[in-house]
Amino acid sequence: MLTGSSASTSLKDVDWVWKSNQNPCSESESEKWSHYSDVENLIINEAFSNKQPHAMLDDCYIDFEHSLQILNTDHSQKRPIKQVV
């Protein structure tokens, strides 16, 4: 589960990234992380700061409890996410 930012870190200093390698579950593949757009980061940060369980984006949603991005049209398509400060 993700933890809240420290009081000294503002939401604009927090970026979210998703694991974008071809097979995000692969242990042998090098990890590749991609940044969400500025608008998506605002949506994610607002939901996170309001302690919402999910953030809804256009094609996917963010599950904060499990630190996952889940495709709206196929819930079996999941990718890890994380915060970067």
TrEMBL record:
Residues 1-83 form the WWE domain. Pfam families: WWE. Coiled coil: none annotated. It comes from the Eukaryota. This is WWE domain-containing protein. It comes from Rotaria magnacalcarata.
